């Protein structure tokens, strides 16, 4: 009994009934246009005073107009929002955005016609049937009703039949609730089929997810290269300064001063780069300007200087004609190469060669292999993978590994 009552008048049933009433309200303008058209054909007038044929004729004319209105871009988003809110459907079963393609537009037209058409009938019954049922219920208790047209229609020649009006009125109300619940359940079952994503919608969603994943990967690379390099360089410089100071009275204070200066420059530069990376996260807010360009090859000397005295830089060719995007990515590649060397080279000298004399920008970084292999990081590293991704996105190549007694990172990127 409780389950039956919940199916007819529970929260879900009430929300779906409301969904149908919303459809009936949306159908009213189309029905009014149909009333004018059919009234002109039949020679009848009045929206609510016409014959039953006029009312249903207007209903028949309004349904095709609903199907035409469903072709407008706003039709599917509005229908999806209403169905999600009132039909209790999972969000992923319905499509987002306007319908794309003939098939999706046809399904949207089918849904809107079904929703507004069924909603008009249920709304009309919800307005007309409850007052009639309540009047039938009151027949045994009201002499005025028994003497009215309703009483004569009900047939009061038999007194015992008068009390049959009570269960009849209750059954009318229950029948209305049952029809509304069944119609709401029908629409809920048809919604995923008629408003669900089409192949074009799934492709667009997959492209959005791919773009979001690429954006996250880009931010991860920027943070890894910028912050990771800064921490490695600061750790290296601070460790070198500490070892010099531990040497006693003969400590090379000039070396310590240079190390502290390098730490200061590195942290100041990294704060600026971090602001730039965080600005990428705010780029979606149109009220703020996007971040300016990140560091490029013009900042390469400062980067190498901050990496310590054992890093030597050689530049061949003019860097000014290098495109801005390539300049930024080349800077990040050198930055990650220096970070990798600081972690794994064991303090060995590092040489950085950048050749921009040909149609390709070539970056080569080498350091002697340490006597003892470096200790592997617990979770591995992603720096060299990020270098390969940057090079691949620009149509270039990246190779890294031991060769001829040195560790070599070689990157070639076309201009």
Automatic annotation (TrEMBL):
Catalysed reaction equations from the record: ATP + protein L-histidine = ADP + protein N-phospho-L-histidine
SUPFAM superfamilies: ATPase domain of HSP90 chaperone/DNA topoisomerase II/histidine kinase (SSF55874)
Domain of life, per lineage: Bacteria
Signal peptide (from-to): none
Keyword ATP-binding listed: yes
InterPro entries hit by this protein: HATPase_C_sf, Sensor_HK_TwoCompSys, Sig_transdc_His_kin_sub3_dim/P
Gene3D superfamilies on file: 1.20.5.1930, Histidine kinase-like ATPase, C-terminal domain
Record's protein name: histidine kinase
Listed GO MF terms: kinase activity
Spans through the membrane: 20-42, 54-75, 112-140, 160-188
Domain Signal transduction histidine kinase subgroup 3 dimerisation and phosphoacceptor per the UniProt entry, residue ranges: 216-284
Enzyme Commission code(s) on record: 2.7.13.3
CDD domains attached to this UniProt entry: HATPase_UhpB-NarQ-NarX-like
Record keywords, A-Z: ATP-binding, Kinase, Membrane, Nucleotide-binding, Phosphoprotein, Transferase, Transmembrane, Transmembrane helix, Two-component regulatory system
Pfam families linked to this entry: HisKA_3
């Amino acid at each position: 009994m409780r389950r039956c009552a919940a199916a007819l008048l529970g929260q879900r049933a009430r929300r779906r009934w409301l969904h149908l009433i919303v459809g009936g309200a949306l159908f009213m303008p189309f029905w009014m246009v149909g009333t004018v058209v059919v009234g002109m054909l039949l020679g009848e007038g009045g929206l609510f005073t016409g014959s039953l044929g006029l009312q249903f004729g207007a209903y028949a004319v309004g349904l095709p107009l609903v199907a035409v209105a469903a072709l407008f871009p706003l039709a599917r988003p509005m229908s999806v929002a209403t169905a999600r809110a009132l039909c209790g459907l999972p969000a992923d079963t319905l499509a987002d955005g306007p319908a794309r393609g003939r098939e999706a537009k046809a399904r949207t037209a089918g849904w809107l016609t079904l929703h507004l058409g069924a909603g008009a009938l249920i709304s009309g019954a919800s307005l007309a049937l409850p007052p009639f049922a309540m009047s039938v219920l009151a027949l045994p208790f009201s002499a005025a009703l028994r003497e009215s047209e309703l009483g004569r229609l009900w047939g009061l020649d038999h007194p015992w039949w008068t009390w049959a009006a009570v269960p009849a009125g209750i059954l009318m109300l229950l029948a209305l609730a049952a029809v509304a619940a069944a119609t709401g359940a029908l629409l809920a079952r048809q919604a995923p089929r008629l408003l669900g994503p089409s192949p074009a919608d799934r492709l667009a969603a997959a492209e959005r997810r791919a773009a979001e994943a690429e954006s996250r990967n880009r931010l991860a690379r920027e943070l890894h290269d910028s912050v990771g390099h800064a921490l490695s360089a600061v750790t290296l410089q601070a460790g070198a300064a500490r070892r010099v100071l531990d040497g006693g009275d003969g400590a090379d204070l000039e070396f310590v001063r240079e190390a502290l200066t390098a730490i200061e420059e590195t942290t100041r530069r990294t704060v600026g780069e971090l602001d730039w990376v965080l600005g990428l996260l705010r780029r979606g807010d149109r009220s703020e300007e996007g971040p300016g360009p990140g560091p490029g090859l013009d900042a390469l000397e400062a980067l190498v200087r901050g990496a310590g005295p054992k890093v030597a830089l050689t530049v061949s060719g003019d860097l000014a004609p290098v495109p801005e995007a390539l300049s930024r990515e080349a800077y990040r590649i050198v930055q990650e190469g220096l970070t990798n060397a600081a972690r794994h080279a064991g303090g060995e000298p590092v040489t950085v060669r950048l050749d921009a004399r040909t149609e390709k920008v070539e970056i080569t970084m080498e350091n002697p292999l340490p006597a003892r292999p470096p200790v592997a990081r617990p979770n591995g590293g992603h720096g060299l993978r990020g270098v390969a991704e940057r090079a691949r996105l620009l149509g270039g190549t990246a190779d890294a590994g031991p060769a001829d007694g040195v560790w070599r990172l070689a990157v070639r990127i076309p201009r």
